[in-house]
Design goal:
The protein has one domain: Ammonium transporter fold. It starts with a strand and ends with a helix. By secondary structure, the chain is mostly helical. 64% of the residues lie in helices and 3% in strands. Strand 1 and strand 2 form a beta hairpin. Strands 1-2 form a two-stranded antiparallel ribbon. Strands 3-4 form a two-stranded antiparallel sheet.
Length: 472
């Protein structure tokens, strides 16, 4: 038989022909990269955000915070393959969402993906990892007080009625499809998680008053470890969004790390200028805002623009978090535990707007079939200012839609759950933390679950010989 590689005929003996598990249309390089990228995205959540959340909160909330992330990861996958993937990416039910149906059959999962030369299972897996991290990012606003039973119901409901709508509307064929520049989820993932988290935090209510005033991380070294998983995992987050082992993927990866590094440096510099100290937690926040900001434009902007986006993502969210938040009664009213609104909603909106400004037509034409996309800057340079302004209006409209939909849908879900169980843990349990919520503690003696006893300190008489002191 005859097969073709790179346009040149290659004759393969019949007994060496590809089997049904690897049909001729399957590009093994693209397939391998997509599976790797999806796994990197998954590792951002498990173990990345599990470690980050479990370390960034007060010691008594370490187990609960990490477990919220772990549970969400598992629950999203079950819901994803049963109905949510089709709602986000398959046949339209209406301009906002697709028809719910399972994607579990061999015929579907081993069929060719329309977007590239790989099996459909790659796409389902990759998009699941995106959906899972969105819900887990949202959880960062609710740590330290949400009733875990309420969280167990919130995850599938929010995935179904909020995330799938945003994903379908912008990526899956909905009314904003092929209009919005959102390469890897600045709007669909980060703006939605930041807005939904802030909204849910309003309905759940604040932490215990003492926790809100005094909430130190229990292990900053582990915070850096979790942040490291998040940063390196973003290689798959943005690199995999081109659905090919292509030049766009390479550019997206480089731009991701360049923007992130710049943002971190800007954030730390502002901390040193205004607070005279370089905060490790501040550096992590600057890292996150850089990752978020570059996401919607990673594969469609030049690297100089990525660096400039890093400057903006390090400065603007720093101002909204460190200055505006402290002066605003509106922000003070809502207890957003890990400041997800600033690191994801603000940075995600910035990224979407800056992508509309800096996106390059040559790069856009490789990803969007409409062929009418251009960033405002290049529209002005190329004499197509009206086209650039139209693109910017789409970006603003997309940000507005995602914001409004998440406020409404998240509020509805919280009010619905509140009629079944309490959204917030009772006050007595809030004082205890993990032991009350799960009957477990993060730091205990191995095997018996007991706390480490206080060490007995012996006071030495001053005349005991030195050797005796050593023995005691």
């Amino acid at each position: 038989m005859t097969s073709y590689t790179g346009g040149s005929p290659v004759y393969v003996p019949e007994n060496l022909a590809p089997n049904a598990a690897s049909p001729g249309w399957n590009n093994k390089g693209d397939n391998a990269w997509q599976l790797t990228a999806a796994t990197l995205v998954g590792m951002q959540s498990v173990p990345g955000l599990v470690i980050l959340y479990g370390s960034m909160v007060k010691k008594k909330w370490a187990v609960n915070s990490a477990f919220m992330a772990l549970y969400a990861f598992a629950a999203v996958l079950v819901c994803w393959v049963l109905w949510a993937h089709s709602m986000a990416f398959e046949d339209p039910l209406c301009p906002l969402v697709g028809k719910p149906r399972p994607v579990l059959s061999e015929r579907v999962l081993l069929g060719k993906l329309k977007l590239g030369w790989m099996p459909m299972a790659d796409y389902v897996y990759f998009q699941f990892a995106f959906a899972a991290i969105t819900v887990i990012l949202l959880a960062g606003s609710l740590l330290g007080r949400m009733n875990f039973y309420a969280w167990m119901m919130f995850v599938p409901l929010w995935l179904t009625f909020s995330y799938t709508v945003g994903a379908f509307s912008i990526w899956g064929g909905g009314f904003l499809h092929q209009k919005i520049i959102d390469y890897a989820g600045g709007f669909v993932i980060h703006l939605s998680s930041g807005v939904a988290g802030f909204t849910a935090a309003y309905w759940v209510g604040p932490r215990h008053s003492h926790d809100r005033q005094n909430f130190p991380p229990n292990n900053i070294i582990h915070v850096l470890g979790g942040a490291g998983f998040l940063w390196m995992g973003w290689t798959g987050f943005n690199g995999g969004s081109s659905f090919a082992a292509s030049g766009i993927a390479s550019l997206a990866v480089l731009n991701t790390h360049l923007c992130t590094s710049t943002s971190l440096i800007v954030w730390v510099s502002l901390d040193m200028i205004f607070y005279k100290k370089s905060s490790v937690i501040g550096a992590v926040q600057g890292m996150i805002t850089g990752l978020v900001c570059i996401t919607p434009g990673a594969g469609v902007v030049d690297s100089w623009a990525a660096a400039l986006m890093g400057v903006v993502s390090g400065a603007v969210p720093w101002y909204t978090m460190m200055v505006l938040h402290r002066r605003s009664a509106f922000f003070q009213k809502v207890d957003d535990t890990l400041a997800v609104f600033h690191t994801h909603a603000v940075a995600g909106a910035l990224g979407g707007i800056l992508s509309g400004l800096f996106a390059k037509p040559d790069l856009l034409s490789m990803l969007y079939t409409s062929g009418n996309h251009t960033g405002l800057l290049y529209g002005i340079i190329d004499g197509k200012a009206s086209q650039g302004l139209r693109q910017m209006s789409y970006q603003l409209a997309g940000a507005a839609f995602i914001t409004v939909w998440n406020v409404v849908a998240t509020s509805f879900i919280c009010l619905l759950i509140a009629r079944i169980v309490n959204l917030r843990m009772v006050e007595e349990d809030l004082e205890v933390g993990d032991s009350a919520a799960h009957g477990e503690e993060a730091y205990a003696l191995w095997g018996d679950g007991e706390k480490m006893p206080r060490p007995l300190r012996l006071r030495m008489p001053p005349r005991i010989p030195f050797i005796c002191r050593r023995l005691l």
